[in-house]
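Predict the 3D structure for this chain.
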Amino acid sequence: MPEKERFYAMPGPNKPPLFIQFILHSKKMTPIDFFYFTDYLDWDKQGDDYAVLEPLIALLAKYGDDLIFAFDEMMAELLYRLDTRKIAQSVYKGENFSADEFLYARCVALINAKPYYNAVVAGRKKLKSDLGFEAILTVPELAWARCHKLHPYDYPHTTKYSYETMSNEEGWKEITIQDVDNYLQTLTKEPLDMQAIACTCGHEEFRIKLDQQTNTVQLICASCGKEININNQSTQPSKLKIKKCSNCKNDVFQVRKATYIMEDGQTKVYIGGYVRNVRIFNY
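Done. Predicted structure below.
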């Protein structure tokens, strides 16, 4: 198989900037490339979104379809990555919000440089519900229309990823009983006996406390307040811990207990809990 010819970008009069030459050659854009383009935004014109975007639109239009479509693809992918239940709930503190408003809030992450975007994805920073920058979504079609002297409505490109809210199905997936059971099973090679925990009053939701000294998980019924203690009889040291959703702060869980009998007759206990998209694990 013949070796693929290597591409070299060359500076020179009337040539695109080097990073644009690489994009035009590969017809692909990286996240770093995308944020190079947002550096062209003119914030001296703040208050007029399309005046802010004008230098970017002009740049894309100058170099044609391959650059415009690559920008469109990367913009859609970056917005898709932000389209998760966790990020939405960090903005709105609940399930009720406008899909369009969440999209426009996500757009703000695209105009605040890559470190800010990465911090939002990682949960170190939170988007704000009262901020949005919808206009950036129109950049590809406006650049294409200017390049071809046609109407923006005739824009022909469809991106691989959709940036519409809840298009990222994995990011909006809810935790299920089976998810918890599957996770608990990964903690040991032995087959586990899975059991749902219920209070004698019939209620199945509990607040949870941990006692590291006695290696005990204490379940407190959210309905009647009765306490249920679950002891891990294993002599092997284990650090009990709770991992809770950092967004909704919910501390009431439905609980699953998984057990098996070890060779010395002791019982090893694994605890998993869930509530909608929240998950905790103790063992």
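The two ends are 54 Å apart (CA to CA).
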